[in-house]
TrEMBL record:
Keywords: NADP, Oxidoreductase. One of its GO terms (molecular function) is oxidoreductase activity. CDD domains: SDR_c. It comes from Dothistroma septosporum (strain NZE10 / CBS 128990) (Red band needle blight fungus). Belongs to the short-chain dehydrogenases/reductases (SDR) family. This is Uncharacterized protein. Coiled coil: none annotated. Pathway: Mycotoxin biosynthesis. InterPro entries: NAD(P)-bd_dom_sf, SDR_fam, Sec_Metab_Biosynth_SDR. It comes from the Eukaryota.
Length: 290
């Protein structure tokens, strides 16, 4: 039976994160919006969602790579909405750099990649676990990952390595936290968010030309996948590609070697989606971004 979403709460801000928030809000979810540095876009999105969808929202400051901030976001969401049903971990960090250059990123920047892309997702579920397990229908955790975790290139080596670790973390959590908690990941193709546009026109055009569909990934299509996964009660431990097929894999190897020149660009925002009961009367969600 599909997991109903009406009445649940969701947090998000710009780029793909904002589009995810709109999709869940359209399902009747209440939205908790977390920001790290720029409050105004979060407040603007909050007002938009309240006005358009007649839902409740909350805005929370926090960094998706800092455990104390994550703990506060979970706590604040539960207090504001009375519970938590699901999490959308949409946070991410990278530094656009020469993939081959081992001096391109400092040890501190590697640590930030790890803390945001891997450790932060672990903390999101760990802090929410008692509440999710107490729900009659358990909970949902969806990570925003990247095809960079499946290839040997990307915006940086640190990003590619930590996204690979994130995908494995997702599988480990799905294996150990079922049957009450469903854990999956979405791996977007090229998204023209603020982050994706940092590739520059020449690189973006090259990525489009290398893709089977000769275009970027539509943010609406990608965001809808999060809703579909949240509703699907027969799915866990899956890394779902939503892209224009820059990489098509055959017999365990990349059929299109040009895919090795690309890594997915995603928003830097994590979030939590929470629902009180299967027939979604309410959704409580928190989404962090950096």
């Amino acid at each position: 039976m599909p997991y109903a979403l009406k009445g649940r709460n969701f947090l998000n801000t710009r780029g793909l994160g904002a589009e995810i928030a709109r999709r869940f809000a359209a399902e009747g979810c209440n939205i908790a919006i977390n920001y790290a540095n720029n409050e105004q876009p979060a407040q603007d999105l909050s007002a938009e969602l309240r006005s358009k969808y007649s839902i409740d929202t909350i805005v929370i400051k926090g960094d998706g790579g800092v455990v104390s901030d994550i703990r506060n976001c979970i706590k604040s969401t539960i207090e504001a909405f009375g519970g938590l049903d699901g999490i959308v971990g949409n946070a991410g960090f990278t530094k656009f750099s020469n993939f081959k250059d081992l001096d391109a990123m400092s040890y501190e920047e590697w640590d930030k990649c790890w803390n945001t892309n891997v450790k932060g997702n672990h903390a999101l579920l760990k802090e929410a676990l008692p509440t999710l397990n107490a729900n009659p229908d358990g909970g949902v955790f969806i990570m925003t990952s990247s095809v960079a975790g499946k290839s040997l290139s990307g915006s940086s080596m640190a990003y590619s390595v930590t996204k690979a670790a994130q995908i494995h973390l997702m599988k480990c959590l799905a294996h150990t936290q079922g049957p009450k908690i469903r854990v999956n990941a979405v791996l977007p193709g090229l998204l023209l968010t603020d982050w994706g546009n940092l590739y520059g026109e020449e690189r973006i055009n090259g990525l489009k030309n290398a893709a089977a569909l000769k275009k970027e990934t539509e943010m609406g299509d990608c965001a809808q996948m999060f809703v579909d996964i949240a509703k699907n009660t027969s799915m866990t431990g899956q890394a779902v590609h939503v892209g224009q097929s820059v990489s098509i894999w055959a017999n365990g190897s990349c059929a299109n070697m040009s895919c090795r020149l690309w890594t997915g660009a995603i928003c830097v925002r994590p979030g939590m989606l929470q629902c009180r009961r299967s027939k979604i009367k309410r959704i409580k969600t928190v989404l962090l971004h950096t």
